[in-house]
Design a protein that fits this description.
By secondary structure, this protein is an alpha/beta fold. It is built from 16 helices and 14 strands. The strands form three sheets. The chain has an eight-stranded parallel β-barrel, surrounded by seven helices. It has a three-stranded antiparallel sheet with strand order 9-10-11. A three-stranded antiparallel sheet has the order 12-13-14. The structure holds 3-methyl-2-oxobutanoic acid and zinc ion.
Length: 519
């Protein structure tokens, strides 16, 4: 795509870089669900995984490649023959596919990570890009840590990659270190110094370690880049990647300064954000631009007054334009218990017991006293919160574990289940298995454990562990998380948290219009 075109290619990497977020790994089925939604959203290229990384990644790439209707599937590969061939094998059943291969080019990475000289790196670029080009005419090449690469060497690598067959050159700000004016200069440098740059599309790939990923991506576009790599909700390694929804809406809303267009149907942004949050279990921060719960909420009286007179006073884009169905004010302090119950049913909570309704109704009344406008989202949050925080069906009372080399490992667990304390002893194949089996004995359920992941929050043996657990029951997926200095206690709590959420999901039989992708 020439530098003077105003069409920006949206390259979504939620399923690859996004999935690299600690705790965000997704099953093949979940990836397919997301891929379908993103295809519908209108992304141009979808990085569907890193096929050489695991069997799951390979399968996901293969399956997704088959179902995409508009987006071009792309797989990531290191600069090795086996990675590139795995990538080809996973995508070769599709009409058109892209291989994205990369290699570090900064002095730091070449010396310590690759242990290679610049000359060896150049040789590898030539080999890997040429090989990829044998399998497809759509090849992307990235100099990893590109923004910290010595400028002349960066130009040399880019020129060589294009000469070897790359059709897209992506410049990663791998560690999210760059400032917008620097990123602008780096992209401009390529257009000024690389003689064959007009034969490739230049792309941005910015990480958010300093909160500058979106600003840097837009600076890259101003300098001539015509592809942006990004993820929904900005998920990704460490602080994440540039957020797709922010980039797209920034260009749409400030088209006077950023006269570019994308193929994104912005009305689907909100549902895609919810889908990703639901699948990964990563909540969207309330004040997150575009897709946060509060992004279109006007709380203060002055703002509400302005909004009633003219929405443009406080809204730079409409909630509808990003797919947020703003339920006008539907409930207020004069609404009665039956109206509240009807509203809850309309929002999908059809099996709530009367005791729960009574409690939730009192909370709603409190809220309506404080808040003039009570929206559907407020009611959903109130009901979910009440369930999860105060009405947990299950909570951990105590846990004692016997582990070590002499099995079987044993757990003595005491749980509070609907106000009754129950205690049980169970054994298992390892302490975590013993704990999970014990919970299953006290509260019988038939779930598949899809994910169990432990992460240290800080360093050292006394670090807090955050455990993520994902369970599935009849297609309903629930993700639980908990932190504790004792990994086994965190494991028990995370499992119980997932189970409590699942119990809530069981009660919500019909999704509300705005939650159509969740539940
Ligand atoms: O951030 C990065 O450098 C990457 C590359 C693999 C493109 O994700
Ligand atoms: Zn990245």
């Amino acid at each position: 795509m020439p530098k003077n075109s105003n069409r920006i290619i949206i390259f979504d990497t939620t399923l690859r870089d996004g999935e690299q977020s600690p705790g965000a790994s997704m099953s093949v089925e979940e990836k397919i669900k997301i891929a379908k939604a993103f295809d519908d959203l209108g992304v141009d290229v979808m990085e569907v995984g890193f096929p050489a990384a695991s069997n799951g990644d390979f399968q996901a790439a293969k399956e997704i490649g088959k179902i995409l209707k508009k987006a071009i599937p792309c797989g990531l590969a290191r600069a090795t023959k086996s990675d590139i061939e795995k990538c080809r094998d996973s995508l070769k059943h599709t009409k058109q596919f892209r291989i994205h291969t990369f290699l570090s080019t900064s002095a730091l990475h070449m010396k310590y990570k690759l242990k290679k000289t610049p000359k060896e790196v150049l040789e590898l670029i030539k080999e890997s890009v040429s090989l990829a080009r044998k399998y497809t005419n759509d090849v992307e090449w990235s100099p990893e840590d590109g923004t910290r690469t010595e400028p002349d060497f960066l130009c040399k690598t880019v020129e060589l990659a294009i000469k070897s067959g790359a059709t897209t050159i992506n410049i990663p700000d791998t560690v999210g270190y760059t400032m917008p004016e620097e990123y602008f200069k780096t992209i401009k440098l390529l257009f000024d110094k690389v003689p064959n740059i007009d034969k490739a599309v230049v792309s941005t790939h910015c990480h958010n370690d300093l909160g500058l990923a979106v600003a840097n991506s837009l600076a890259g576009v101003k300098a001539g880049a015509r592809q942006i790599e990004c993820t929904i909700n900005g998920i990704g390694e460490r602080a994440g990647n540039a957020a797709l929804e922010e980039i797209v809406m920034a260009m749409k809303t400030r088209n006077d300064l950023m006269p570019f267009k994308t193929g994104i149907n912005t009305k689907k942004l909100s549902s895609c954000s919810k889908l990703v949050s639901n699948v990964t279990g990563f909540p969207v921060q309330f004040n997150k631009a575009i897709v946060g719960k509060n992004a279109f909420a006007h709380e203060s009286g002055i703002h509400q007054d302005g909004m009633l007179k003219n929405k443009k006073t406080y809204e730079i884009m409409t909630p509808e334009s990003v797919g947020v169905i703003k339920s006008s004010l539907v409930m207020g302090k004069h609404s009665g218990r039956n109206a509240f119950k009807d509203k809850a049913t309309e929002l999908g909570y059809s099996n709530l017991d009367e005791k729960f309704i009574n409690k939730a109704f009192l909370k709603f009344k409190d809220l309506a006293d404080k808040k003039k406008h009570v929206y559907d989202e407020d009611i959903i949050a109130l009901i979910d919160d009440d369930f999860v925080k105060h009405n947990n069906a299950i909570s951990l009372v105590s846990l004692q574990v016997f582990a070590g080399t002499k099995g079987p490992q044993k757990a003595i667990i005491e749980l509070m289940v609907y106000d009754k304390v129950k205690k049980i002893e169970s054994t298992g194949d390892g302490p975590v298995d013993a704990i999970f089996k014990g919970i299953g004995k006290i509260y019988p359920h038939k779930c598949n454990l899809q994910l169990y992941q432990v992460q240290a929050v800080t360093q050292g043996t006394d670090a807090q562990a955050t455990v993520s657990v994902r369970i599935e029951e009849k297609g309903k997926i629930s993700v639980g998380q908990a932190a504790d200095t004792d990994t086994l206690v965190a494991s028990a709590k995370a499992y119980i948290n997932a189970l409590n959420k699942l119990i809530i999901k069981r009660t919500r039989t019909a999704p509300s219009p705005d939650l159509s992708v969740s539940a």
